[in-house]
Amino acid sequence: MGKKRVPDVYRAPFPLYSIKVDPKTGLVITAGGGGASKTGIRNAVHFLDLQLVGEHQYSASLLHCHDTDTRATMNMAVGDGVIAAGQDGTCSLMRFQLCTQTDGSKAAAKEGGNSVLQGSARRRAGKGDKGGQDGAAASGDLSNIKNETTRISVTGLAEVQSDLNPQDPLQKVVRFSPDLSLLLTGGTDGHIRVWEFPSLKKKFDFKAHEGEIEDLDMSPGKKHLVTVGRDFACSVWSGNQLAMSLKWHETLPQMAEKTYRYMACRFGKVEDQKEALRCYTVQIPHKRDRRPPPCYLTKWDGKNFLPMLTAPCGTEVISSLAVRVFSYLAGAVLLWPHGCGSHLPPTVPLSRIYLNHAKAEGAWSLLHMACQHQRSSVQHTNFPVLNYNSLLSR
Fold it and tell me: What is the 3-state secondary structure (H, E, C) of the chain?
């Protein structure tokens, strides 16, 4: 018997590459597209309203579609009403705002050349939608109807050049610092670039890795920056100075040095321990075998960066990592197509996840994006908690 198919909460008309949830408004923001090629597939950022319509059942309504012209958004960060979107070798900053229209009109408005899909939130499944593909939105449940006066305006703020690879510039990752005072990017040229936000005055530009940067994260207080790259390195930086390099394989003496590479990194606080800090890294096999070896998750002390524990986390190649405020981990992974392993082109990430709800009754409630073959959808499901009790303990 095959795996039970997870129902789609929302189906996009283009490939999805990134998903975020705005903590202030609760809006689900997805982005992607067909890129610069003239295939007829548009590039856009979608703003969705997610509503609980039953036990473990969600409905999503499209509130606004912001067209991004010829550039697909491959990664993004959201902070205080601002989206930092990675589009080719550029980081584009956009401000979004919930607006209300007093006359109740259903006419579309124009904001800075971008159409505002006012009233589209009242639309349920379209004529071309198939049963089950849009989840609760296709079920006719009226709870996904929003006030037709609600609309979203998107205004372009600025752009910065975030990658200078002479062959194919591509921003791979973008994050705001925890206090939203810095904007950090990493790309295929191996450079970390840091701008003061919102002035966008460049603060640092330094070579962090040989080759592509996979992920980065900044600690609370901005004391340390952790970066991981395809060069097998995980580096800890103080400003633009290298503080140390992490060696996860030394926690497993039988592990050869370059059989695994780092894929993701995140800081996490510890509940009931105000001063404690953890750093988590994900390691994936550099090469995939017919009998794939496991991926690993390592917990480090977030202040002195001594390794605390390493645990295997399944043979599916991990593509994303999310950590809640108090170090509850969602190492969920939806995953690469069978046989592709870690050798997919870096411009085709298959999934991103966002931890949507707290742990409850042995399951994480996750909102994730699946983009596999011709499927581009937002789904909601309850994943079983990975058995990392010792790893997640204090």
Answer: CCCCCCCEEEECCCCEEEEEECCCCCCEEEEEECCCCCCCCCEEEEEEEEEEEECCEEEEEEEEEEECCCCCCCEEEEECCEEEEEECCEEEEEEEEEEECCCCCCCCEEECCEEECCCHHHCCCCCCCCCCCCHHHHCCCHHHCCCCCEEEEEEEEEEEECCCCCCCCCEEEEEECCCCCEEEEEECCCEEEEEECCCCCEEEEEECCCCCEEEEEECCCCCCEEEEECCCCEEEEECCEEEEECCHHHHCCCCCCCCEEEEEEEEEEECCEEEEEEEEEEEEECCCCCCCCCCEEEEEECCCCCEEEEEECCCCCCCCCEECCCCCEECCCCCCCCCCHHHCCCCCCCEEEEECCCCECCEEEEEEEEEECCEEEEEEEEEECCCCHHHHCC
